Amino acid sequence: MATLGLQIVFSSVFLNWSDITGGEGGLSISRPEFWGLQLSSITSYAALTLAFCVICFIVALWIAQSGYGKVLKALREDELSAQSLGKNTFSCLLTIFGVSAGLAAVGGSLYAYYYQFINPTCFTIHDSIMILIIVVVGGAGNLWGSLVGAVVLVTLPEILSFIPAMSIFFAQIRVVIFSVVLLILIFLRPQGLLGEFRFGVVQTRKESARLNGRGIQELGRQVAMVSDEGCVKQRGLDVPIMEVSDLSKSFGGIKAVQDVSFAITPGEVTGIIGPNGAGKTTLFNLVCGYLTPDKGEVYFRGKNVTELSPYKRARIGFGRSFQDLRLFGRLTVLDNIILALQSYRTDENLLRIFLFPIKTRQRKRQLREEGLRILEGLGLSDKKDELVEDISYAEQKLLAVTRVVAIQAEVLMLDEVAAGLDLGSMKALSQLLRTIAQKGRAVCLVEHNLEFVMSTVDRIIFVNEGCLIAEGSPEEIIQDRKLAEIYFGGVRGC
């Protein structure tokens, strides 16, 4: 809607900027010449238009099928989740907006050269709405669908024009017909004539809430196979990798976090516990950059990262899972894994994608093979083409942890990762987190299930009403009667 509004504004500006655009009088343009040959006939110009149409379609298709295209689909699903995987959402959206404007400019140029005249009224809000209808009718997210939508909605009026009576009738109720068609498709086939996903893929939701034990073991093996470089490099494990100093955050008169300080050490699982509303998730959001603190600092490897955005923190070693999972539900299971494996320097570099097409294809195959190996080990290979929203909740949990591990994060921030799992699944998950920590990573989790916390963590940070109340081993915290009263609602205050 904002884009359509801007079009109305700029149309008025260009219409009155007569020194540049000619105003309503417009500009006269001569037919283009190539090597001294002028395209004066309709046939030759149609061939030129078709050539540019094919080129633009190939460019759009190449982008859509690239790693950059996967990022764009991820942004459509959930921008916060994309940032947690290190995706620069602003840069991606700005770049694709420029590319889209360039492709639209090609069409506008061909239009102007054909009619040899152009003015600001040649392209109105009605044309933009027509393009939007074409995309919705054909199928958003599917270039072939957009092509089908264009063929149907553009050629239909031309076909009817050969029937004089129908031509007049259609011109009078054109908007009504398009509106009815659009409403019918929205209700009966919201994905359009050609949806984004392939036909024939069976999508069935399994109600099981139990994790595949072999899958948990395989994910642990994936962690163990990571090279000794990067996040699992053996350095002084007693030296904190992340430190939080005097973090505070208020929302109006509510002090969600008050002067909280703690450190996270590699090789250790740290649990943050406290009653509901204690500020645990807010603290996570401050540490990961999703909220800006009123005061205080966050340090990573001794460097102040308080001002870094979430995607930059993800790139240097922060991994974040969410209480509500925030997976890319309308992407496939395999694509969710590949998005975590992709490198922003190579796989998501739009210029590199076009300059090195062969390397790009090779890298796509490599990422797909790596993703399939991971899914095979997790026991999810048979669901690689299913949408994430159609697999069971327990499998989504496993996928969420897998994504954090796949980006090779040095600090794993996990928000209620055991919620909704049965006892067997929690035991397997607990062992997995212990394995991750043993390989030199730091794990920090927010969790309400005390049994899971006691069997998993090395150290507990107790938070209440935004304050850090106590810190110590699980045994020390659980034996403190005052903390037990706070946790179960007997005592209030910091």
How does this structure look, described?
- The protein has 21 helices and 14 strands.
- It folds into two domains: 2-188, no CATH class; 214-487, P-loop containing nucleotide triphosphate hydrolases (Rossmann fold).
- 52% of the residues lie in helices and 14% in strands.
- The protein has a six-stranded mixed β-sheet, sandwiched between helices.
- It starts with a helix and ends in a 7-residue tail after the last helix.
- It has helices spanning 2-16, 18-21, 42-64, 67-77, 79-84, 89-115, 125-138, 143-160, 164-172, 174-188, 213-224, 280-288, 310-316, 333-341, 350-355, 357-378, 393-406, 423-438, 450-456, 474-478, 481-487, and strands at residues 27-28, 33-34, 37-38, 117-118, 242-251, 254-264, 269-273, 295-300, 303-304, 318-320, 411-415, 442-446, 459-464, 467-472.
- The protein has 494 residues and is an alpha/beta fold.
- The model is unreliable at 199-209 and 225-236 (pLDDT under 50).
Output the number of helix runs: 21
Quickly name the level 1 CATH class of the largest domain. Answer: Alpha Beta
Q: Fraction of residues in helices? A: 40-55%
Q: Say how many strands there are.
A: 14
Mean pLDDT: 85
Full CATH superfamily name of the largest domain: P-loop containing nucleotide triphosphate hydrolases
> What spatial form do the alpha-carbon principal axes imply?
elongated
Number of domains: 2
Alpha-beta classification? alpha/beta
CATH architecture of the largest domain: 3-Layer(aba) Sandwich
Rg over C-alpha atoms, rounded to the nearest angstrom: 28 Å
Distance between the termini: 47 Å
